[in-house]
Write the C-alpha cells for this entry.
Amino acid sequence: MKKILLLLLVLSIMSCVGEDNEGQDFGDIFDSDEGLILTEEEHPDGWGRSECFVCHPIFDIHQVDRSGIGILPLEEIQEFVVEEGLPSCPICHGDNGVDK
Ligand code: HEC
Ligand code: HEC
C-alpha cells in the first residue's frame, strides 16, 4: 500500500513539472523582411487594433524562442511586458497600423 501511495505521489509531481507552457505559435514571425515589426500582410486579423491582449494573453506570449538560434532574452521580455503592459508592444512590434 505504501508503495502505491509513493508511486502516485511521484507521478503527480512529475505531471506538474512536465506541464510546459508552449505558448502561442504563429510560426512565421521571422519570415518577413520587417522582422518583429508587424505588417498588414502577416497580421491580417489583428491589424489596426490596439488591445493586443484580447487575442494574445499576456502569459501565453514570448514563451518559446523561435529565432532558430536561441538567443532571445525571453525572461527579460516577459518581465518588461508585464511591467509596461500594452504600451510596450509597439516598441518591438511597431504600431500595428494603429492611428496615432
Ligand atoms: C483580433 C485578434 C488580434 C489582435 C487584437 C491582435 N492580434 Fe496579433 N495576431 C493575431 C493572429 C490571428 C495572429 C496570427 C497571424 C498569422 O501569423 O497568420 C497574430 C500574430 C501576431 C504576431 C506574430 C506575427 C508573425 O509574423 O508570426 C505578433 C508579434 C502579434 N500578433 C502581435 C500583436 C500586437 C503587438 C497586437 C496589438 C498591437 C496584436 N497582435 C493584436 C490576432 C490578433
Ligand atoms: C522587448 C521586445 C518585445 C516587446 C516589448 C514585446 N514583444 Fe512580442 N515578441 C518579441 C520577440 C523577440 C518575439 C519573437 C519570439 C519568438 O517567437 O521567438 C515576439 C513574439 C510575439 C508574438 C508571437 C507569438 C510568440 O509568443 O512568440 C506575439 C503574439 C507577441 N510577441 C505579442 C506581443 C504583445 C501583445 C506585446 C505587448 C504586450 C509584445 N509582444 C511586446 C519581442 C517583444
Residues 15-19 have pLDDT under 50 and may be disordered.
